[in-house]
Amino acid sequence: MSAFNDRPGVFSYAGELRRELSLRNQQYAKRLQLLSRESYGDPPSICYLPSEDGMGHGNFLRESYCAILRNASWRKRLLKAHTQARSALPREDRAWKELDSSNSSDALLMNIFCFPGTLRNRRVLDLLGSKPGSFRSLGSDRASPWQTAEQIVRKWICGLATYWWNPN
User: Fold this and answer.
1) How far is CA 59 from the centre of its chain?
2) What is the distance between the alpha carbons of residues 59 and 49, in angstroms, rounded to a whole number?
3) Residue 149 burial (CB < 10 Å; 0-12/13-18/19+)?
């Protein structure tokens, strides 16, 4: 039984995935000496801080983060407040943002789709039923290719989690 499931004898894939994400992010942050903090939960979420030079962020590939900083529409997403920061995270000199969290599906999507060249890749665009240039504004139109990308990635994550703990 998982700590995230109070029904006796019921296994929680979501709880196990959160536990695995927490452990891997703790190891990742330590190995790369990234600025990060742990939430107060069990297991803790890992929240990353931007690098001291402002050109990197532990929750993003450097190439993706630099591309996000260069695009005003994408950069705006970095400002969205973390909704549970007051109760779940230690106080910092800066306000916590949603994309700081290692559990942020939006950060995962942005790592993938903001990576230079991804949105020019014909196979990726075909998978999303999109055309080059259709991803210019992130999140402004929920009927956009971003919504399709989000649905595909979320289904992939759920499928991966199910396979991970039940490979039969």
Assistant:
1) 7
2) 8
3) buried
On whether the CB atoms of residues 17 and 166 are closer than 8 A, the answer is no
Find where tokens 């005003």 sit: 72
- How far is the C-alpha of 24 from the C-alpha of 77, rounded, in Å? 25
Domain map of the chain by residue range?
13-165
Q: What is the pTM of this model?
A: 0.74
Map residue 46 onto helix, strand or coil: strand
- Alpha-helical (H) ranges within 80-121 are 85-88, 105-113
**For 1-47, what is each residue's pLDDT tens digit?**
344 455 555 567 778 888 898 999 999 999 999 999 999 988 999 99
Q: In this structure, are residues 22 and 45 in contact, taking their beta carbons and an 8 Å threshold? A: yes
